[in-house]
Amino acid sequence: MRSLESVQSVIKAYDVRGLVGEQLDEAFVADVGAAFAALVREEGAGASGVRIVIGHDMRDSSPALSSAFAEGVCAQGVDVVLIGLASTDELYFASGILDCPGAMFTASHNPAAYNGIKLCRAGAKPVGQDTGLRRITEQVAAGVPAWGGTELDEPVRSAPGARGTVSERDVLAEYGQYLRELVDLSGVREMKVAVDAGNGMGGHTVPSVLGPVSALTVEPLYFELDGTFPNHEANPLDPKNLVDLQKHVVATGADIGLAFDGDADRCFVVDERGEPVSPSAVTALVAERELAKNPGGTVIHNLITSKAVPEIIVESGGIPVRTRVGHSFIKTTMAETGAVFGGEHSAHYYFRDFWGADSGMLAAMHVLAALGEQDLPLSQLMARYDRYAASGEINSTVADQEERANAVLDAFGTEIVTTDRLDGVTVELASGAWFNLRASNTEPLLRLNVEARTGDEVAELTDKILAVVRG
Q: pLDDT, tens digit, for every residue of 196-227?
């Protein structure tokens, strides 16, 4: 048995994440696999025909951990389909076409010492605390009942009962073909595409997805799969990790640059000058394209994307729906509203045609299609979607998050036009500028986002807010 607290430190609100060897080992993930298998078996019509698809990233620990998870699943009488090396959205694709639950072994952009598991139900539907992770946590802590109904006194891999079977399936080519059917690149002009895979799974998927498009010449950077991340962290949300791509775009004369995170479910875009393109601008562009195919459709955006996003959604004849920050809120709201698309400031992009799941690759293909269907450079194409100046997310360590947020409200007084508490506090000012302050769920941090008409106004507001927040 394990303490509930130790399990909760690894099985978090949306996924499983921890230090390999200290928090996460083969015995632990075998129990997670057994608990997940028991859950999906009970929700099915019995053990017959129930299966779980498993993929993994390039981290050194991923093959052994995913194999241990598979053993835990099989010990519960549930079959396993192994797809091997995969990006997270490739795993979602497999879950969709096979119509079965899935498990992806990755720690995304975290350092090499970490690993984790992203779980989904059949059709890539998310698994969160209220939809399975809480029960899995409790079972892993208390001991997962063996298939046959008795409590385990030994590792789940030796549990009695009918074992599930293991099969293998390579879905990479099918995944690439499916994405190219969703976004037709066959008619685009010739373009040079610089791609920084960050030694992550983009190095595995980009050649399969974009390679068959004859008009595209890919200029690869760090495509070698290496879970030690020898060149830079595979986290393009941090500007320092975009520097190599920015230089690479200029050096190669590329029309566009793409940067993927470790498990390649997020994609950041750089224009032909080497300048980063805001994920909000990408969200607006993709929303416009999806609404052209689905007139009057709903598009989801979280509350810290640019206000240009809902403006463009409305101008495109769509219905904008604003949500809290976080993929679980986006995916839940997409399912509830039947939304055609959803976008976040963090460069997660969600598609109804992709089972409501996120795919950075699919978003990148929309940008490539939009760029390749006309003659303007990317910087000019994106200018109409980039209407405001923004601070980006700024974190401050504070002891009392709520007290500091209230102090900021007091400091602005009559300048405030509206406030809302959907996620933290969002404030609209008389000038038309707005800011959001929200507390981290796991750390003593306040996260600030500011948007205004000009960069000078953003800087002025940011300085004023941080002076209060940081005392």
A: 999 999 999 999 999 999 999 999 999 999 99
Residues (pLDDT < 50) of the chain are: 45-48, 149-160
| Active site residue ranges | 108
Question: What pLDDT is recorded for position 161?
Answer: 57
Can you give the pLDDT at residue 147? 84
Our CA angle for 80, 128, 348, nearest 5°, is 90
Q: Please say whether the beta carbons of 130 and 21 come within 8 A.
A: no
| C-alpha–C-alpha distance, residues 143 and 136, integer Å | 10
Nearest to 201 by CA among 371, 17, 62, 13: 62
Instruction: Give the pLDDT confidence score for residue 46 in this predicted structure.
Output: 39
pLDDT of residue 130: 83
Specify whether the CB–CB gap between 199 and 224 falls below 8 A: yes
| pTM attached to this predicted model | 0.92
pLDDT tens for residues 103-160? 999 999 888 999 999 999 999 998 988 889 999 999 999 999 888 743 333 444 444 4
Residues 6+ apart with CB under 8 A from 461: 391, 429, 433, 435, 450, 452
Q: Can you state the angle between helices 26-43 and 133-142, rounded to 10 degrees? A: 130
Q: How far is it, in rounded angstroms, from Cα 188 to Cα 298?
A: 28
